């Protein structure tokens, strides 16, 4: 069956506006012309898509289904146009992605360097965001690929495993906890604590685990970045829970120390999120293969 893209676009306008007249005005057409386009589409599909009323239109069940697929088709077309535009203005294209601080700090530099060696003509536009923001950006289409903490839920997206992250305690040198080979969350009860801001999925996870055990972690200061947390710990304002890679590289500075956490909650998965693998641009698909490998 051949589909008329303009008729589908007009049908979407009618469905979104709830009125043939409003859709006609938006597209600079007569109401009768728009009505005929929708009628022709209904005849081609062999089913009614809208029910006409004096005050507007309502979608039938078939109309709701067609609207869903028409929106997806429009999204594909827009992505095609975007990819063609990138190809016209760059050697091979641009990849839009977002990742949380943990992935950017620990894993992505090496992975992206490996990818760029094989794809020197590409441009990667990277945004550093909190996990919740990354999920929103993938859902909205602002980015093609997102990497976020598995502690956050992402309904409706395709999720793929990326890396596994280990959490540790970062403490000032000489702190009593640094004499232990490992600690549990109960060992942190009553400690002064340097926290990440509350939108952080890592912080939300730690707070949730502490609350379940009835543990009182006294937050003295909240900051946005891992670097900010480390500097507060260096200033002896408290201890912190951070990813291994955000602490291990800084142990040459004798002002901080690292203590392993011997509990299952201290291990988390970093996940890759996309809306639809098949709908990714060719450069983004190539990057996805590298990240999954």
Please work out how many helical segments DSSP would assign. Answer: 11
| Structural Rg | 26 Å
What's the SSE pattern?
Answer: HHHEEHEHHEHEEEHEHEHEEH
CATH fold naming of the largest domain: D-Maltodextrin-Binding Protein, domain 2
Helix content: 40-55%
Number of strands: 11
Q: Tell me the structural class.
A: alpha/beta
Question: Could you state the CATH homologous superfamily of the largest domain?
Answer: Periplasmic binding protein-like II
Global morphology: elongated
Main beta-sheet annotation? 7 strands, mixed
In what range is the share of β-strand residues?
15-25%
Q: How far do the termini sit from each other?
A: 40 Å
Count of separate structural domains: 3
Q: CATH class of the largest domain, anyone?
A: Alpha Beta
> Whole-number average pLDDT?
89
Low-pLDDT stretches are: none
What is the CATH architecture assignment of the largest domain? 3-Layer(aba) Sandwich
């Amino acid at each position: 069956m051949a589909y008329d893209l303009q008729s589908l676009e007009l049908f979407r306008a009618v469905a979104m506006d709830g009125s043939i007249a409003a859709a006609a005005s938006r597209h600079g057409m007569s109401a009768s012309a728009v009505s005929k386009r929708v009628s022709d589409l209904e005849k081609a599909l062999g089913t009614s898509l809208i029910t006409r009323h004096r005050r507007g239109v309502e979608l039938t069940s078939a109309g709701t289904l067609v609207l869903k697929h028409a929106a997806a088709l429009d999204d594909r077309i827009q992505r095609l146009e975007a990819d063609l535009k990138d190809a016209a203005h760059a050697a091979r294209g641009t990849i839009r992605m977002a990742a949380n601080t943990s992935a950017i700090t620990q894993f992505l530099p090496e992975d992206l360097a490996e990818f760029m060696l094989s794809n020197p003509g590409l441009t990667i536009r990277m945004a550093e965001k909190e996990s919740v923001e990354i999920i929103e950006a993938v859902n909205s289409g602002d980015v093609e690929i997102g990497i976020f903490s598995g502690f956050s839920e992402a309904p409706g997206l395709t999720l793929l495993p990326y890396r596994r992250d280990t959490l540790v305690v970062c403490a000032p040198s000489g702190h009593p906890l640094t004499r232990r080979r490992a600690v549990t969350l109960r060992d942190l009860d009553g400690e002064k604590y340097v926290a990440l801001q509350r939108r952080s999925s890592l912080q939300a996870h730690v707070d949730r685990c502490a609350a379940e055990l009835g543990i009182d972690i006294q937050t003295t200061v909240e900051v946005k970045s891992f670097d900010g947390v480390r500097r507060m710990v260096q200033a002896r304002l408290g201890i912190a829970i951070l990813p291994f890679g955000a602490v291990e590289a800084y142990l040459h500075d004798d002002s901080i120390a690292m203590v392993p956490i011997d509990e299952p909650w201290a291990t988390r998965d970093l996940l890759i999120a996309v809306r639809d693998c098949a709908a990714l641009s060719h450069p983004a698909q190539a990057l996805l293969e590298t990240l999954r490998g």
